[in-house]
Structures are given as structure tokens and as C-alpha cells.
Amino acid sequence: MELPDIYYYKPIYVETASGNKVCKQSVLSGAQNIILNGKNIVMEDCVVRGDLAGIRTGRHCVISQKTILHPPFKKFAKNGAYFPLHIGDHVFIGADSVICAGTIGTCVHIGRDCVIGEKSVLKDCCIIEDGTVIPPQSVVPAFAIYSGNPGRQIGEAPESMEDLMMEYTRSFYRHFKPVLDLEKATSAASAPNSARIWSTQQ
Fold first, then answer.
1. Which strands form 68-69's sheet, in the order they lie side by side?
2. Domain that holds residue 87
3. What is the pLDDT of residues 36-55, one digit of tens each?
4. What are the C-alpha distances in Å from 93 to residues 75, 81, 88, 96?
5. Residue 81 belongs to a domain with what CATH number?
6. Which family does it belong to (predicted)?
7. Does residue 129 or residue 3 have the better pLDDT?
8. Which of 49, 108, 137, 169 is the most exposed place for a label (fewest CB within 10 A)?
9. Residue 193: which of 93, 43, 125 has the closest Cα?
């Protein structure tokens, strides 16, 4: 799957030695506790709370506009603590989502306007459709498709989901291109979403 070119305004992005492209308009708190393992894209107005606990992503992850990555909190009898948030390779997170999961596996698609509750576990190759709310401490099985509020399983992803997500996230990165003219930058509303990349594969 080859995507159309997605143009970002180069002056507001930083590209690291490992190929991560991070928007300066996003807030990465506790940067020493945030590990982006290469060729990640962090778009505009995201909030990454590494000041609370460690946050680690794999390679080729896309974190869309206005997404919040927030380590999960667990309350104990007398106090509480934040726990690390781990995200696997080839994960796409849609715009305006709030992620408080404990673990997100590889090749996972999370749509727009989703909420992933505290200490939830999303297994490999699962799909969270737009607007879904996953309750705290839930476990989403591998290859499951979840939708609704609260989220429930409505189907299964195709066996080719791993290949589809690897191809999609790599294509997204290849086509995410810098421009110096702000008017040529692709708006958030018109940026492609992978929400239906599997629909023709089932």
C-alpha cells in the first residue's frame, strides 16, 4: 500500500539521528525517560508524560495530532504509583486519542478519538476502531477488532494484519515529507488514516 505524500512544515519539526520526526509543538515531559526506537513520527500538539514514568515505543510508530501518552497509575492502600508504558513496533495511533495502557503490542491500529484505560493490555495485531473506549485493566486479544463505549469485540482482523501494518507504517514514514512553505503542509483533517486498510483484505 502506497500512500499519498503527507507534507509537514519542516521548521516546526526535529529529526533525530535515528530518524524520529518530532513536532516542536508537542510536549515531551521527562525526555530522559522517553525512548523512541527509530523512525517514529510524533505530530503536532501531542503530550508525552515521561516525567511520570518511562515511555518506550518500538520502530515505525505514528502518533497523530493531539494524542496523549500517559503512563498508567495504580492506587495502593496508602498511596499509588505510575508504571511504564510500552508500545511495540508498527503501531498507528489516531488523532485526539488518550493512551494510558500498560502495554501495546506490535502492529496495532488505534483509531481517532479513542481512550485506552489505565493498565490495559492490547495484544499484537488488534484493531481499536474510531471513538472506542477501552476500560481500565482490560485485555484486548490478538487480532481482535474492538469498537464502542465501553469497547467490545465486534470481529477479527485478517491473518495478514501484521504485514498490512508493517507496510502501512513504513509507507507513512516514506511519504511524510518536509516542506518550507506552510501553505503546502498537509492539514490534520486531510492526513490519511489507516482505519480501513484491512477492509479489502478480509
1. 27-29, 47-49, 68-69, 98-99, 115-116, 133-134
2. 6-190
3. 999 999 999 999 999 999 99
4. 27, 25, 12, 9
5. 2.160.10.10
6. Belongs to the dynactin subunits 5/6 family. Dynactin subunit 5 subfamily.
7. 129
8. 137
9. 93
53 belongs to a structural domain: yes
Q: What is the pLDDT of residue 40?
A: 98
Which comes out higher in pLDDT, residue 176 or 196?
Answer: 176
Query: What is the value of pTM for the model shown?
Result: 0.92
| Mean pLDDT of the region 108-127 | 97
200 found inside a domain:
no
User: Number of structural domains, the chain?
Assistant: 1
94-98 own/partner pairs: CB under 8 Å, 24+ apart: 94/64, 94/67, 94/130, 94/193, 94/195, 95/43, 95/64, 95/65, 95/66, 95/67, 95/188, 95/191, 96/64, 96/65, 96/66, 96/67, 97/64, 97/67, 97/68, 98/67, 98/68, 98/70
The backbone torsions φ and ψ at residue 46, rounded to the nearest 5 degrees and listed phi first, read -85, 160
> For residues 19 and 13, is the Cβ–Cβ distance under 8 A?
no
Among 38, 37, 74, 35, smallest CA distance to 55 is for: 35
Q: Do the domain assignments include residue 199?
A: no
